[in-house]
């Protein structure tokens, strides 16, 4: 993983997604609703705690979060979402994972397939690209938010002692990668040490990142926009450099 800065690569995409904040909140509310179906207590529902932390990291209002939790607790109408992950290749052979939460499988499947097919991609079978990714904890601490210019070696030692697998450093940020099972412990340890996170989530990290062929970039962008704009799509992961 050394030399691969996920944060530096995705900053442009993140800024673009921030401009669609209402849609981001809508998708997070759905994710909170699903997690809260297993219990509304953050202290005993680790999945709910993670998604609430994720929502707070993008400044989702507390009222929105509470409303999604309360909706799950009082859900007598049988509202239900299926969790489905689609796998395929974008233009230029870039591997793509699309994680969805949907109340209509046919609608979601059609929309995802159209997004791929209209933009030079193709859906694959289950398992066709998932093996290229590892589920990891991913934490970003922007150095501008630190009270002092934290020494890289000191921070790396703290993170590793907390249980991190790897740390990437740059002028802008510290990026911490963990095993999925260790994510919560590492996040809690760093939080208790006084660090604030701009990102703290479980993510699908590509084992190897590939450049998008020069003539395919615009097509790839259109495919990504179509997928991310879909209300049923929660996350899109790729092994493309810049994403």
Give keywords.
4-stranded antiparallel sheet; 8 helices
Report on the biggest sheet. Answer: 4 strands, antiparallel
Give the helix proportion (percent range).
40-55%
Distance between the termini: 15 Å
Helix/strand structural class: alpha+beta
Number of strands: 8
Strand order of the largest sheet: 3-1-2-8
From the alpha-carbon coordinates, what is the Rg to the nearest angstrom? 18 Å
Descriptive account of the structure:
This protein has 8 helices and 8 strands; from the N terminus they run H-H-H-H-E-E-H-E-E-H-E-E-H-E-H-E. With 243 residues, it is an alpha+beta fold. The strands form 2 sheets. Strands 3-1-2-8 form a 4-stranded antiparallel beta sheet. It has a 4-stranded antiparallel beta sheet with strand order 5-6-4-7. Strand 5 (166-169) and strand 6 (173-179) form a beta hairpin. Helix 2 (21-36) runs antiparallel to helix 3 (46-57), helix 2 packs parallel to helix 4 (62-73) and helix 5 (105-117) packs antiparallel against helix 8. The longest helix has 16 residues, at 21-36. The mean pLDDT is 88.
